[in-house]
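Following up on my earlier thread - several people asked me to post the actual chain instead of describing it. Fair enough. Here it is, all 65 residues.
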Amino acid sequence: MATLIVHPENEEQSDALKAVMKALKISFEEEKDEYDPAFVEMVLKGEEEIKAGKGTKVDTDDLWK
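Reply from S.P.:
Thanks for posting it. Predicted structure:
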């Protein structure tokens, strides 16, 4: 049998999908997002800035002074 992975865009879609699967007696697993979306966005933005040369390099020898 096939495994389906769905990506609901909001809580309403998620609830509707769960209700349908329960009504059809389809077993499913739910995984919660581990990270706050705002945090993920901040990290991704930081990576883009580093690629664009906007980062600051620190020599590890200078950390102990």
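DSSP finds two helices and no strands in the chain. That should answer part of your original question.
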